[in-house]
Amino acid sequence: MNIAAAQSGGPTCAINASLVGVFSEALKTPQIDAVFGSINGIEGIINDDLVDLKRMIRTNEDMELLKQTPSTILGSCRYKLPDIETDGAEELYQKIIACLDRHRIEAFFYIGGNDSMDTVEKLSEYALNIGSRIRFVGIPKTIDNDLPVTDHTPGFGSAAKYVNVTVQEIIRDSSVYSIDSVTIIEIMGRHAGWLAASTCVLRTNDETAPHLIYLPESDFDADRFLEDVRAERAKHKAVIAVVSEGIELEAGGMRSGMVDNFGHKYLSGVGNVLENLVREEIGCKVRSIELNVMQRCSSHICSAVDISEAERIGAAAVRAAMEGKTGVTMVFRRLSDKPYVVTIEPADTSLLANKEKLFPKEWITASKNQVSDEAVKYFLPLIMGEVNIAMKNGLPLHFKIR
Amino acid sequence: MNIAAAQSGGPTCAINASLVGVFSEALKTPQIDAVFGSINGIEGIINDDLVDLKRMIRTNEDMELLKQTPSTILGSCRYKLPDIETDGAEELYQKIIACLDRHRIEAFFYIGGNDSMDTVEKLSEYALNIGSRIRFVGIPKTIDNDLPVTDHTPGFGSAAKYVNVTVQEIIRDSSVYSIDSVTIIEIMGRHAGWLAASTCVLRTNDETAPHLIYLPESDFDADRFLEDVRAERAKHKAVIAVVSEGIELEAGGMRSGMVDNFGHKYLSGVGNVLENLVREEIGCKVRSIELNVMQRCSSHICSAVDISEAERIGAAAVRAAMEGKTGVTMVFRRLSDKPYVVTIEPADTSLLANKEKLFPKEWITASKNQVSDEAVKYFLPLIMGEVNIAMKNGLPLHFKIR
Q: With 50 as the cut, is the pLDDT of residue A352 above it?
């Protein structure tokens, strides 16, 4: 039998490590012959655009390089498979199954977020209904950490490590001048505040900053924000506020958006909007910093725990498929924070597909501008350890298709 | 005799290493007793705000931590010493000399950029004129690399390494989707394009991007920029353009600035402005990324060559002062690119003070959107090597005053 893997959704530092996990476990499994990679997620199956991974990943060194290469070596997509009831959808499903059959692919592994798990669920159900033996297994990944059931998602730990390392450096940077200042740091996460909240781990290294943390889960209010900043300015020369990109400014009494040179509305980030608010209402020195895509691709400072777990969960997915499991997504279950122990288990994909896990309200302080020490215990193990990155000419070596 | 050191201007990753260089060389010099740190640059001397560095830096481990801590442990300032002819200036100069005399400080080391070298020049001249034996020695630092005489400036190599590592990761990030895109990366450097130009070293690791590099030295033109982008889009799915923050948009036919929620003009970065231009005129998927202060404070990926040189140039400054030199700034002279060999020499501070060294026009290609391989030879040695960073709880340990 052959197998295939695909990668989908936004890039992370760990998504290639999960592919390595699938690939290396397949090499160890005598029943598996070819391992195909599907180019640009499920689109590669629809368009019959597959590569032979054994020709692409040739040596152990290739595997090591791939694990330290951010983003997705097989490309990605933002493709939502239509419901089987939709007009013309059944032909699409048939086309997918036909492509897999043609290449004798009996197990398909989809590394991705919410949308990819939706695809896994739909295809596994369809395959069961038509009596196909093809198995579909999901492997989670997202820096947003917003998937339910699993303790956390591969890719999140590396993003959180980058964010914390960088916020710590910005704390140093903001402390140099004798003049008082406010620094607003905007962090990714869509509707979920996990990544912004993770900056609470800086406490463990005796940092008092960030002084304020605003999450989408904590109901933003512009007036309260200004009060908070004024109160922190009374205590600290250089106030650091972390804001999640998903906070709802309009519900909190603000307008977002600016008008550019051409008179068109320009959707600026929340950090920018809050920077202007502080300048206007408080009038002190203020700057906003967006950590941007560096949060999802800075593999040079990835978390060793994250990369190792991403590889292990990929390998576990292959074992689950070999046991006949389909319509499942592999998840982490945490047994203990200290020592940190997780197991990997299959879960029914319907429990994850199209569902979001938000940051727990009980970990947000009553002031709605900080998170509790319970959150520190959760986050800390995920950012531990460094990967020994292979370098050339002063720069990390990335895996490239030859 | 005692000595004092101060740090000034914008933070870098190497400015604390130069302080360690001064401190550790002083420990080895039997004639030197106390080593003072002046808080917030020359302001610390004016306000008699000094710390005893031997009480602050107590162990070898402290020195190692300080070398991996970004920004300035002694704080900084943006203070321009008035000319001696200015009304009331002589009193200020007298106050400075009186403070130094009171603490038996016979040598003052100023780690900084253009403005700090101006201070070194003025104070050394004044001291000579009044027959004071106090020596003033400049130690260069700036991520902008825009100081003349010296081959390069401490702090630049680490900034260039961060920028190159990050641009390489953004190249991976931008390549995932099947849809064509343009990514514009805005890089610091004020009026000088050195840091943006340094991304040419990615060639040595077989990267074809950045496809376009725009420097303040290459006369920006909006129409030519759009032509360039269109031409690269015909060749590459994901076009990467690097722009120096100092390019002159208005001279090139553009307006910068946006109007915010309050109707006030908001000075947006050049990356943002060019992003909107591409969206408006070409209509493709486009994003802009500002690397922001991370360029000057990301010590977790600093250049080992830079940190080591920063320490050595600090130590050399102490030796120069002990030889009686004053009104000098220590500079690097490069003897060879490969093997990379530099010497450290004193140069007359008047040759550096208030002067700017721009990126050489002869290294800009005729198309004005790229730099030549000569530049690669210049930049490459400066980003070499990694510092083994001490970590705690998954994060770099920073030196903190106890």
A: yes
A280 touches chain B (CB under 8 A): yes
Cα distance from A131 to chain B (closest Cα, Å)?
33
Amino acid identity of residue B310, one-letter, is: A
Scan residues 323-352 of B and list those with Cβ closer than 8 Å to A: none
Amino acid identity at A186: E
Residue A358, number of CB atoms within 10 A of its CB? 16
Q: Are strands B181-187 and B285-290 parallel, antiparallel or unpaired?
A: parallel
Question: Which letter does DSSP use for residue A82 in this model?
Answer: P
What pairing do the DSSP bridges indicate for beta strands B35-38 and B2-7?
A: parallel
Please, what is the angle between helix B304-322 and helix B156-174, to 10°?
170
Positions of A marked catalytic: 144
DSSP state of A66: H
pLDDT tens-place string over residues A107-132: 999 999 988 999 999 999 999 999 99
CA dist A73 and A111 (Å) reads 12
- Decide: residue B235, CB within 10 A, 0-12 exposed, 13-18 middle, 19+ buried: exposed
Q: What is the mean pLDDT of chain B?
A: 94
Using the 8-state DSSP alphabet, how is residue A303 labeled? B
Q: In chain B, what are the domains?
A: 2-148+301-353 (3.40.50.450), 156-297 (3.40.50.460)
Question: Is A266 a residue whose pLDDT tops 50?
Answer: no
d(CA A209, CA A288): 15
Separation between Cα atoms, residue A182 and residue A237, nearest integer Å = 8
Task: Give dist(CA B186, CA A398) in Å, integer.
Answer: 23
Coil, helix or strand at residue B197: helix
Flag the least confident range among A257-266, A330-339, B69-78: A257-266
Q: Are A172 and B69 within 8 A, CB to CB?
A: yes
Residues, chain A: 402
Judging contacts by C-beta atoms under 8 Å, the chain A residues touching residue B384 are 393-394
Give me the mean pLDDT over the B175-197 stretch.
94
- Any chain B CB within 8 A of the CB of A393? yes
- Name the H helices within B268-381: 270-281, 294-297, 304-322, 373-379
DSSP-based three-state secondary structure for B324 = coil
Q: Does A394 touch chain B (CB under 8 A)?
A: yes
B299 contacts A294? CB cut-off 8 A: no
* Residue whose structure tokens are 């307006």: B255
The average pLDDT across A72-83 equals 93
Q: What is the ipTM of this complex?
A: 0.96
- Mean of all residue pLDDT scores within chain A: 94
Cβ A70–B300 below 8 Å, yes or no? Answer: no
Both tokens assigned to A130: 């038509």
**Per-residue pLDDT tens for B316-326?**
999 999 999 99
Q: Give exposure, A189-200, as e/b (b: 16+ Cβ within 10 Å).
A: bbbbbbbbbbbb
Helix, strand, or coil (residue B367): coil
| A138 pLDDT above the threshold of 50 | yes
Q: What are phi and psi of A359, to 5 degrees?
A: -65, 135
